[in-house]
User: Fold these one by one.
Assistant:
Number 1:
Amino acid sequence: MTRPDTPRNDDDLRRWIDRGMTADDAGEWGAFVDELRAESRLDEVELRRDAARVAEAVLDRTVREDLGWRGDLRLVTGFVRRRLRSSVLLRVAAASLLVHLVALPVLAVYRIITAEPERDGFVVDFEKPGELPFAEPREEALPLDDDVALPELESLDAPSLAAQNERNADRWSVFRRGEELRSVAEFAWDSALERRLAARASALLDGVAPRGDVTVGGDLERLLRVEEHLDALLFGGVARHDAADLAWLVEQAAGDPPRAALAAAALARAARYGVALPAGADAAIARFGDADFAPFADLATAEGGAPLSAAYVHALRSAAPAGTLSPDLDALLAR
């Protein structure tokens, strides 16, 4: 900075010298002026150089900008270069990535060179087991004579495959009609026959044999008891009906419907479950093809022959005294 008494230009300096400046002062002030002029020239040179750089940068970013892929590449590389120059961690990460990229082909070539040759095929060898030190000697199987007959599958004391399938189908029918049977079991019924059927529906849902606490008397009682025995057999219980019950069903099936239809339906269900039937049972079951059995033909179908079906209740209503079964029972089973 210049003081107030310091000349500001050459004219002020000359006037200041004319007023009484000594030779020593003139020399010092001349050196000072030369120094100022040298610094001014240096600043002018630097300013001119910076201005040139700024002008070149502006031209590169405007009229000289390459709008093709080379320009895009130059912008990206410039940005990456500036970011690498400003961040140490980024330079370390870039160096690590470069080392991995260089090492990966080397490892791949090493793996190819040191790989084991492929085998021609996959071979599995089975070795014969050796004799156990304390094993008992095995007996040789005796040859069978040609006249020796093996027991047939049907003669074994077990339900056949067809009987098991029939039982499974009826168990599935009970499960599928669970809502209807539960409505029957939980309804407040009036007559003894309705309460007996409600107890049977509850037992079917629980998968147990009905207890038969409510009795209806007469031939209907025996028909209901045989059906409940078949329910017990359905869920893996022991068949509690005897040959007399089956013979009685054959006699009833020879009569007039609807009671004959109920007896024939019980015989058909017993046959499906694998129960051995007495003579005449097949002819009784075949009566479903007669004209007088036509109103109860649904009992011979898979759905009508299921436990406590709507077709069974329809036939039971026809065989029971008038007014014994409420229409609500059909409505619940038909939902």
Number 2:
Amino acid sequence: MGNKSFTIIVAILLGVSGVAAYAFIEEGFRTERVDYRSDETATDYAGREVPIPTSLDGGIITIGRLSTLRWLAYFPDEFEYVTMVDISMAAENQGALAYSYAYGDILLKADTHSNDSLEESEKINYANPSLILVNDATYKACKSACDKLAMMNCLAVIDTMSDLETKGFWDKDYQLCDRFVNQADLYGTLLKNKDRAENVKTYFQDALDDIRNNCIGETSTHVAYVGGPVYQGSNPLTSTFNPYLPHMLVNGTNALGDDTSDKSMTPEDFGNLSFDYMFIEPSTVSPNKEGGNLLVNKPSQGVLNIVYQRNNENPNSVKLFMVMPMISHSTNWLCALTSAYHLAYLEYEIISMDDVIEKSNDLFVKFYGEERGNGVLEGMEIYFANLGMTVHADLCTELFSEVKVGITSNNEYILVKV
């Protein structure tokens, strides 16, 4: 669908609470439109001066899957105003997408538009929202349509942050990077909740400080391989990240050494690596785009065969653990922190597994609020525990579990609980 202009035929200033209403015609429909744009402005990520909404009564529409909703979720009172999202986000309990467990009812109820695009800009404009939040990647791809929407709406461009997936959201001293600070401040200004923005920054920094100062030692004796992190769809165990944010945060040693960035290798390449820990993201069990299961495909079976043979020759030479997956529609920063607590326990044992659960629950409650955050970790544990059983009754994909390689009656390698 093309982007069409909207013709305002009458402007009627109501003078009620500073809100203006406009009568306009759009594709043959005549209606009354509320103007939520105030005289106050904020500078968005694209450097644009954008009006702050007078209220959120018209609802919030997010465009782009990677960051807009994720950051809005840290403002639980304001998330209640979400009315329209990308179509693939209108679901509850989505894998590693932590906020979908907290706000599933809102996401299911929300209206939808096409993913990461402005193909339905007329529909978005017709909804007459108080605020439109757009990922910067989507804004760059659809600038003309966004600029047209901004003529009649409060529209702000948000930092997508996809490049931070392999850098971390902290600086060399493990203080929040400027982009994280600026993002929190922008949301606080647009939503007129600067106190909450300050809390969000404090929660992130407190978690970084806690992990760095209270949960890890100076040097870990373990070398780890990270198998199957989900990136642009599910991936086999030959896919890996280096650096891997949770592992980086606890000073872990990656089996790939200086070979950085996301990487897909052959089982033969994998066989040349030396490591004693293997961290597995259970999302690798999810079906791929073709509907097949990636744990039983040739690359993953090759990996599991190598680990099986190593442990046969030298028992427990490689220990395998299911970790909290951090990626679903880009990195979920709270899942990265939760996983870091788990890896800190595995690498150093300074904190207990009970501490990991308690600290993880505390994170979700702080960021999503008491009512909505309380069941998030439990919901994710249930989701991933059930995920393995959809493939095989004995396949273990329970979060935080230790697993080993087993063999099915069909001579396929699977992961079973230790």
